[in-house]
Automatic annotation (TrEMBL):
This is Trehalose operon repressor. Residues 1-69 form the HTH gntR-type domain. One of its GO terms (biological process) is negative regulation of DNA-templated transcription. PANTHER family: HTH-TYPE TRANSCRIPTIONAL REGULATOR TRER, MANNOSYL-D-GLYCERATE TRANSPORT/METABOLISM SYSTEM REPRESSOR MNGR-RELATED. One of its GO terms (molecular function) is DNA-binding transcription factor activity. CDD domains: WHTH_GntR. Keywords: DNA-binding, Repressor, Transcription, Transcription regulation.
Length: 237
């Protein structure tokens, strides 16, 4: 077995047996080089594999942090409000509404929401705080013709509850994309990124039961806190 794999498996064992606690920093590359009596290149190969397999997150300027194995399961295939997820996971959460405005649809929003240029669109920016850490930034754009009224109180509570119970709208399905990108200045300003150099973004196009598109959302997640899950079934051809 190549030496970096031997080191990798030894580091995995130390992490899984809690010799290094979740959220703690691994020894530096220099310290690991001395510990395993090997080259820095070999250590970097082992650390890169640890990162790929979800054991550590490399944090710029700090080193490698052991990832919390008790991540929050985020069901990619479902359509659930944050409040519903909060109840399911029994979490201590808070929603902070940073922006609630009516904006004119530019060319990008025109394409995403299938509205006319300059049509009014609700823009809602909310930070989701879980266990006193700001780890999700939700940016919602909602067709004003379908949802003529939104308030800060509704956005702090649950937009979907309001749509389904007050407006009697029937949310049916969504098309989703998942990408990983560098944090924006807005991400860095509003989230507790703790030095993480990537953000997991789920883009959702949400439709009513008459197949009308009413919402485009970007849900931006700190990568160390979530496990994105799905259920798949093989269909025979």
């Amino acid at each position: 077995m190549q030496k970096y794999l031997t080191i990798y498996y030894d580091l995995v064992n130390k992490i899984e047996t809690k010799q290094w606690a979740e959220s703690s920093m691994l020894p530096s590359e220099h310290e690991l080089t001395e510990m395993y009596e090997t080259s820095r290149e070999t250590i970097r190969k082992a650390l890169n594999l640890l990162a790929q397999e979800g054991y550590i997150q490399k944090v710029r300027g700090k080193g490698s942090v052991v990832i919390d194995v008790d991540k929050f399961d985020f069901p990619v295939s479902g359509i659930a409000s944050f409040k519903e997820m909060e109840r399911k996971l029994n979490l201590s959460t808070k929603t902070i509404v940073n922006e609630l405005t009516l904006v004119e649809a530019d060319h990008e929003l025109k394409s995403k929401l299938q509205v006319k240029l300059h049509d009014p669109v609700w823009k809602v920016v909310r930070v989701r705080e879980i266990s006193k850490e700001k780890i999700i930034l939700d940016k919602d754009y909602i067709n004003h013709d379908i949802v003529p009224v939104l308030t800060k109180e509704i956005c702090e509570d649950s937009i979907y509850h309001y749509l389904e119970n007050d407006l009697q709208l029937h949310i049916s399905f969504a098309r989703k994309e998942i990408i990983v990108e560098k944090p924006t200045e807005e991400d860095q300003a509003l989230l507790d990124l703790e030095g993480h150099s990537n953000i997991v973004v789920i883009k959702s196009y949400v439709y009513l039961d008459d197949a009308s598109l009413f919402q485009y959302t970007e849900s931006r997640h700190r990568p160390d806190k979530f496990r994105f899950t799905d259920f798949a079934r093989r269909l025979k051809s």
